[in-house]
Design goal:
single chain, Arp2/3 complex 21 kDa subunit ARPC3, 9 helices
Length: 193
């Protein structure tokens, strides 16, 4: 087993995170849930192994998922990368020690991803991606709002609950892991109370 950032353990964690993201994202999509659940594996990888592995997990999730589901998902790979990097940086700063910090991390992740997601939705898709969130964009446009604020409101509104839930679930997962399973993850020390 290699050591360092791209150790076998970190790459296996990324692969598990990718599988978790796709499985939960597909389930949420199939059940027509108002949340995505497609970044739990990314945030978990970021909390356990840091921003680089978290970002890699998110990026590869969307690229691989794009091959399975269609190219629209792949265009949002930079958004998934930002989610992993920001979650890892927040974890490094100790923002996954308490449940309220995890919830706040979900808000920060949402704001950060909006900087990338809004331009993608506007310039590549004209604000419409074929997701359930398009209803809100269309509604706001019908009310007379311009495209940018309509898409921004949609991205923030649709992601805030999802990312807060994701961060809190990851916080709970990390708390539930036995000590012997987490002792080999030095990065996790930043997230322990």
């Amino acid at each position: 087993m290699t050591s360092g950032l791209f150790s076998t353990r970190n790459l296996v964690l990324a692969a598990i995170g990718i599988a978790l993201n796709i499985a939960l994202g597909q389930t949420a999509s199939f059940l027509k849930l108002p949340i995505f659940l497609d970044s739990i594996g990314t945030v978990l990888a970021a909390v356990l192994a840091g921003p680089v592995i978290g970002g890699l997990t998110g990026l590869l999730t969307n690229l691989l998922w794009g091959l399975i589901q269609g190219p629209t998902v792949a265009f949002f790979a930079p958004v998934a990368l930002v989610i992993g990097v920001v979650a890892g940086l927040l974890a490094r700063a100790g923002f996954f020690r308490e449940i309220w910090q995890a919830a706040l991390s979900g808000v920060v992740i949402t704001v950060a991803l909006a900087f990338v997601a809004v331009p993608i939705r506007i310039y590549l898709f004209g604000g419409v991606t074929g997701s359930g969130a398009d209803f809100l964009t269309a509604y706001l446009l019908k009310l007379g709002q311009d495209l940018f604020p309509s898409v921004l409101t949609t991205v923030l509104g649709w992601n805030i609950a999802d990312k807060v839930l994701t961060a809190v679930l990851v916080w709970g997962i990390v708390r539930g892991l036995p000590g012997r399973a987490t002792s080999d993850w030095p990065f996790l020390a930043h997230s322990r109370a």
